[in-house]
Each structure stands twice: as structure tokens, then as C-alpha cells.
Amino acid sequence: MEGRLTSGHFSRRRFVAGAGAAFTAIAPIAAPSPIRTAVAQSWRAGNPFSLGVASGAPGADGFVLWTRLAPDPLSSNPETPGGMSGADVALRYEIASDPGMTKIVRRGAASAEQAFAYSVHLDVAGLEPGRSYWYRFLAGDAASPAGHAATLPAPGSAPATLRFGFVSCSNYEHGYFSAYRHLTGENPAFVLFLGDYIYETVEQFRPIVRRHSDGVEAATLPTYRNRYAQYRLDPDLQGLHAQVPAIVTWDDHEVQNDYADKWSETFDDPEQFLRRRAAAYQAFYEHMPVRPIISRPNGPVMRVYDRYTLGDLIEISAIDGRQYRSRQACYAPPNKGGGHLETNASCPERLDTGRTMMGFGQEAWLYAGLAHSKARWNLIAQDVLMAQLRRKRDGIDAFWTDDWNGYPANRARLLQHIHDAKVANPVVISGDIHSFFANDLKLDFDDQSSPIVATEFVGSSISSYGPPYDPIARVLPDNPHVHFFDSRRRGYVLVDLTPDAMQVQMRAVSDAHDPKATISTFKTFAVEGGRPGVVAA
Ligand code: FE
Ligand code: CA
Questions:
Q1: pTM, whole model, 2 decimals?
Q2: pLDDT tens-digit readout, 153-180
Q3: Residue 102 C-alpha to ligand 2 middle, in angstroms?
Q4: Cα of 252 to ligand 2 centre, how many Å?
């Protein structure tokens, strides 16, 4: 268990064997079998590694290596996902200590699982902490591109610096993924995906630069699979995954806009919606470098939340804000599905302390982890805006019911716990709202004298259109804990961390409609160690 994720009630035994099972040379494919015959034929028809490779879920002694065999990645035949058919396919893999893949440190066998669209989730252990590795997969006569992976710093070590990025909301139809390309070029240790990695929708009204290829709202396993495949064919996203380890959680659009647990935005029968959720979660699993031991889906249930510890420098809790949440307050047909603005008078239910965004089980897991953390910094990576945002409905103060403003009791429990447990340097990072924000998180947002207990940064969107600027800019005087807001630029956030300070650069692309967009720093902030809250940098 040493050094890997600290969360576990799970057996740490990996299905990947260690050095004892390593190949000394790449064995030629043995006697033909029906499976391998089918594979060899399909390779002649296309590149089985069309969707690239990815590494993720890093630990101090390993990581997950991902690929998915898809010689026909956007196959319209639901019986042959990615153009594949037949039983599981045997692959081999190589891990090297150099980018040229000349110093092989591990070779072994892996399996592309028919049940999961011929994806591979290779959970590797037993490597050295705090260093880079390079890897590739081999299937028949085909080799994948080489990817880069890295182990986390050893437990008890004291990293002097760390650079990472966080991203959210990449709508393929709304723009190109230049932001992903530029983030790759910044050489972050890892990238945190905070949700809306795909959009299930088809844009009806606003300008688009390219189409979701099947032209339908994703709602079934084949249509979700095609969405992920299309996104992964994008060279900027594929390039990011090949070079930068990923830590992932999700938001709503991986399933349906503004869903909550088994509650659809569109008032679907919950049993029917759970079948849709199961398909969406399975497609997410099939395309993400997540640990099978934690995340392999079971019907509509899939765990994505987890904890990552980087020596004494930082502990990251990546949490799930969708699967376990209470239904949005004052959710009622015919027109109040999903998020809406409610006043205290119109919706007292919003304030009910029995409501939760995280689910009480995940809340307990997070609070215990934060209380036990020995890290200098504690990052909570999650999907939606946490700071209070007092808005207006017909001139009266109102709150959006889909983000943390719809779950103020859960927010208060979390911030009270951070305060009481004296959690060191807590920082929350968020997505969903397609805007940059820099916020102080206060124990009581309505009391000027209340202490600041944590800091929040929100990372705009990779390409999704932002909300209208003026209505939110107008209410900023009612929200003095919001230091910065802008919804007019697309991009990501780059964080440079030392034991003493966090530097935060909001990076914006010149134009998300330009596939060759350039990048620049739009705004810079900092957090000083030992002093929660946003400071100018
Ligand atoms: Fe979004
Ligand atoms: Ca969202």
C-alpha cells in the first residue's frame, strides 16, 4: 500500500504482474486463433491505436496506462465498437526510462477488454517514485505512439516545486482545442480534468466550428462511445494525453446537462435515466486512464473520487459532485429541472440542512482525509463554483440551484470542517461556469468579519461559450469575496507551487474559433502559505 493512493479500502494487488512475469524479448504472436485472425484483418483496415494513449491516476510507485483498440473509431455499427469484434485481445506493453524507449524497464502483457469497447486499463506498480517514464502498446504488427507517464513524489519527500494545470468544459462544436495544445507545451506534472470533458448535446443555436459527427444527443452506449472517440481524435487533446498524466473527475455533460444522481434535467423516469447514466459512465470509464480497481463501473455506479498525495507538498482530493447529490432544490415540472435562480422566499428548500451535493458518504470520506492530511497544501478538485454568488431575480437576491449555491448546507459543513480541523492551505479548484473566478471562501459569506478559510480558482472553459458577462459583473458588488470574474475568455489555469506560495496564471487563447490560436497570461494571482485568500501577484 505504501506510497500509492492513501484512500484505500481496496486490495492493492495489481492484475499486472511485476518483474517476474516480464518478457525478455517481444514474443512473436503464437499460433493463430480466431481472435487473432480477426485482429490481423482489422489492422489492415485501419490503425488500432487511432485514439492514442494516456496515463493517469498516478501514485508514488505507478500509474494507469490507457489505450483503446479502434481501427474504425467512429464506427456506426453498435455491434462492433471502434470496428472491433470478438473476444478480449492480448496486447503487450513496454515501459522505458527514456523518451526514445531504448532503456526498457518493464515489459508485459495486457488485455483489451471486449466488455469495455476493447479499452486497456493497465495498472502498473513497483516503479520508482517521482520520475518520468515512457511507454507504448504493441498489438499484432501495430505499435502505439509512445506516451509519457510519471510517478508521484515519494511519501515523506519534500518537493521544492510543482507545476500543474486544470481544465474543464471542452465543447467540440464550440471551438478548437488549442488550449489543450498550449497546456501540453507548459510541461505540467499533471492535468486535472474537472468535468464537461465531452458534451452530450448537439448545438442548436449558437455558432459552431465543427460538428458532433453523428448529429444526435448522446444517450446510449454507442453514442457516448462515439462522442469520446471523436474528442480523442482531436490532435490537441490526443497530444495532451500522450504527454501529460491525467487526474479526472466529471461534471454533468458526461451524462446529461444538470443531472443530479438519478434525476434527469428532463424529468425522465429515474429507472430509465439510471440506464442512460450507466451507459455514460461506462463510456467514460472506457476512455479514461482511471484505476480499474476503483473505477470499473457496476451498472449506474462508478467511483471517480480519489486522493493523491505528493510527498509533503500537496494532497489532492478529486471529488464527484454529481453521482450522489440531492436533487436540485425546488425541482418541479414543468419548467424547473436542472439549475434555476431561486430567492429565499421562493425556495426555502435550498437551505435544508438534509441536502447534500457530495452525498454523506463522500462528505465523510473527504472530511476524514482533510483532517488526516499532513501535506503543506490541500487541494479540492471538483466540478462547480463553490463561492456564494448572490445574483438577482426580478430585482431580488437569488441563487443558482445547480452549483454550490444550491447546496449551501453542504458548503457550510465543508468550510466549517476546514476551519475546525485547521486544514493547511486549502484551495478549491472548479469548472462548469465557463468563466475565470478568483474567490475567497468565507466561513459565513454574509458576514464581513467572518474569517476566510480557503481560496477558490475557477478555470474558464477550453472552448465552451461563456455566460453573458454583464449580468454577473453587475452583481459583483454584492459579492465582495469575489476578487475576479471574467466569462469572455477561453483557456485554463496553470499553477506553480512551492511550500510557501501558490502562483496561479489564468491562461487564455487568442480565439477558440482559430485552430492555430496563441496563448497568453490573462491574469495572475497568488496564495501565500499560512494565509488563505486571493492576493495579487
Ligand atoms: Fe461546461
Ligand atoms: Ca457543467
A1: 0.93
A2: 999 999 999 999 999 999 999 999 999 9
A3: 43
A4: 5
